[in-house]
Amino acid sequence: MNFWYSHSVIAYLLLPFSFLFWLISRLRYFLFKLGISQSYRAPVPVVVVGNLSVGGNGKTPMVIWLVQHLQARGLKCGVISRGYGSQSDVYPFLVISDTDPVKGGDEPVLIAKRTGVPVCISANRQDAIELLLKIQNCDVIISDDGLQHYKLQRDIEIVVMDAKRGLGNGFVLPAGPLRETANRLQTVDLIITNGGENQYTEAVMQLVPHYAINLVSNEKRLLSEFKQGSALAGIGNPQRFFDMLQCLGIQLNQTQAFQDHQQFSAEQLSQFNVNEPLLMTEKDAVKCGQFAQQNWWYVPVDAEISGQKTTALLDKIEHIAKGK
């Protein structure tokens, strides 16, 4: 929604509906805070990685980074997710690295592939945690999204924000992109901005690509070897992926942005030139393996996070996990 990032007439016309949305969300928040609505306390610490705004902000790379760094400290991690876009016949559903992304969802499968930890998906976070703890003795549970899911109690909250888009026009849905107002940032443990700094930055995350991997042969090539090609992205902010490739000196002759969590088919991607590389995100690649072509490559990215508060946050999580 382009008007979410400006103070347009459309945004102001929608403000009465935003006020109603804010009123309902605040009432719900206080019902849980006061204990009137029942919430669930997991037997192990829970870390929520979420955001205030809708759309792609970089939560999944942050979850992967967090799991890997906690593993390096000797902690056993599990991940829960709502599993948006998944089509499992039963929930909660356990996702592993070779789970069909149609059943498990693209982001949960990607997290399982990159970290090797079990990922459990369900709209009911309590059910997801209970199934996860049945199969693994976790020291800490990381929730991919769920900042506004107050039915789940949490020990740590991390907000990931797109540095460029920030909080948009500052309005809550539907006049703006926010699920909660900016005041909510004062209560979280860490604010990470993806791609640079803005007025809210406490730590900066850069998504760093190093190479591309062929979907058919698994061959790795340095991105510097790619001079031109096409690109697709079915993520929350596709332009970020295209800009990244162009900043690396790759001339993109054709780009196609798809909706987030897009399910692909061979016919749908037949529009791309077979005589040049087709570059896609790793999240998209997990859904294209069964009909991949020789010229298809995906670009994995690693989150690099700077800022002294990140070390303090890891120390805090480790202390909580080892203290319970």
From TrEMBL:
Catalytic activities: a lipid A disaccharide + ATP = a lipid IVA + ADP + H(+)
Gene Ontology, cellular component aspect: plasma membrane
Any one Gene Ontology BP term: lipid A biosynthetic process
Keywords assigned: ATP-binding, Kinase, Lipid A biosynthesis, Lipid biosynthesis, Lipid metabolism, Membrane, Nucleotide-binding, Transferase, Transmembrane, Transmembrane helix
Residues annotated as binding ATP: 53-60
EC main group: transferase
EC number: 2.7.1.130
Listed GO MF terms: ATP binding; lipid-A 4'-kinase activity
Pfam families the record matches: LpxK
Pathway: Glycolipid biosynthesis; lipid IV(A) biosynthesis; lipid IV(A) from (3R)-3-hydroxytetradecanoyl-[acyl-carrier-protein] and UDP-N-acetyl-alpha-D-glucosamine: step 6/6
Domain of life: Bacteria
Membrane-spanning residues: 6-24
Family note: Belongs to the LpxK family.
Task of the protein: Transfers the gamma-phosphate of ATP to the 4'-position of a tetraacyldisaccharide 1-phosphate intermediate (termed DS-1-P) to form tetraacyldisaccharide 1,4'-bis-phosphate (lipid IVA).
UniProt-listed HAMAP family: LpxK
Cited PANTHER family: TETRAACYLDISACCHARIDE 4'-KINASE, TETRAACYLDISACCHARIDE 4'-KINASE, MITOCHONDRIAL-RELATED
Protein name as it appears in the record: Tetraacyldisaccharide 4'-kinase
Native source organism of the sequence: [Actinobacillus] rossii
Higher taxonomy: Bacteria, Pseudomonadati, Pseudomonadota, Gammaproteobacteria, Pasteurellales
